[in-house]
Amino acid sequence: MSLNLLNFKNWRPPHLLFIKACSLMVVFFAVWSPPALSSEEFTLITLKVRVHLMQSASNKRLSTSLTEGGIKTIFEEVNRIWSQAGIRFELEGIDNLQALGIPEKRWYIKDRNWVKSAIPTGEFSASAIDVCYVKDMGPNGFFYGEPVVVCEKPDYHKVAGGCDNPVARVTAHELGHVLFLQHRQEWTNLMASGKNGISLNAQEIKDARKRALEILGRKPEA
Ligand SMILES: [Zn+2]
Q1: For 58-92, what is each residue's pLDDT tens digit?
Q2: How far from the centroid of its chain's Cα atoms is residue 22's Cα?
Q3: C-alpha closest to that of 155 among 173, 136, 174
C-alpha cells in the first residue's frame, strides 16, 4: 500500500450530492419490502365465500345495487389479486339479504357498529366466509369478526400499478383482514388503507396462507 493513501492531508469531504444519494438509498431500503413470490410456488388454497347483497326498504343506503354478475366480476379480480399468495376465494353462493328493521340513525353513515347491527347473523353460512355489500357507509369496508362488509362506492387514492376495480380492491383488502393481516403504510400494498394498491410481501403471504389453512382446519405448512 502506498504511503500516499494514508496521507489524510489530501482528504476532502464527500460531495453533497453523494451524501444525498446515500440518504435516499437508506430511506429506500427502510421502506422496501421483499417482493412477493410467484404463485406457482404455492399449493392453491381455496376458501369459500358467501355473498349477501343487502336490501332495505327503510334505509336506502344499505340497499346495494350490485348484481350477481357484478359480484362475479368483482371476485375474478379479487382472485387475480390473491393469486400472488396462491389463495382463491370460491363463491359458495350469492343471495339477497333483508336488513333488520332497526331505527335509522342520523349519523349511521359513519357508524360501522350500526351497519353491522342491521345485518341478520342468522343468515350466515356455516361453511363459508360471509361478505355483505351495502350501497353507502362511512368506511370503505370493515371486518372485526363476521361478516366482512363492503361499500359499493369506496373513496380511495390511486397508486401506480393499483387495481382498477375499487370494490374488488376493498373486498380483497378486507379478506386480508380475515386472514389476520394488519394495515400497512406502503401505498402500493394491498393492506394500505384508502389506496388501490394490491401487492403483498413474502411475510404477509406466509401469514395469510397460515391463517387460511387454520380456517380450513388443516395443519399449517412447515
Ligand atoms: Zn383495513
Answers
A1: 888 899 999 999 999 999 999 999 999 999 999 99
A2: 33
A3: 136
What span, in angstroms and rounded, lies between the C-alpha atoms of 199 and 35? 8
Ligand 1 centroid vs 212 CA: distance in angstroms? 18
Residue 199 CA, ligand 1 centroid: distance in Å: 14
Residue 39 backbone zone (phi > 0: left; psi -120 to 50: alpha; other: beta): alpha
Q: How confident is the model over 24-59, as pLDDT tens digits?
A: 665 555 555 554 545 557 899 999 999 999 999 988
User: How much is the pTM?
Assistant: 0.81
Q: How far is CA 185 from CA 11, 161, 168, 170, 188, in A?
A: 41, 16, 20, 16, 9
Helices 202-216 and 166-178: crossing angle in degrees, nearest 10, is 70
Cell of 105: 340513525
Residue 105 has pLDDT above 80, yes or no: no
Looking at residue 105, its amino acid is K
57 Cα: distance to centroid of ligand 1 (angstroms)? 29
Instruction: List, in order of start, the domains of the chain with CATH numbers.
Output: 43-216 (3.40.390.10)
For the record, the C-alpha cell of 35 comes out as: 417482493
In DSSP terms, 133 is beta-bridged to: 53, 150
* Spatial distance between the Cα atoms of 36 and 158, rounded to a whole number of angstroms: 21
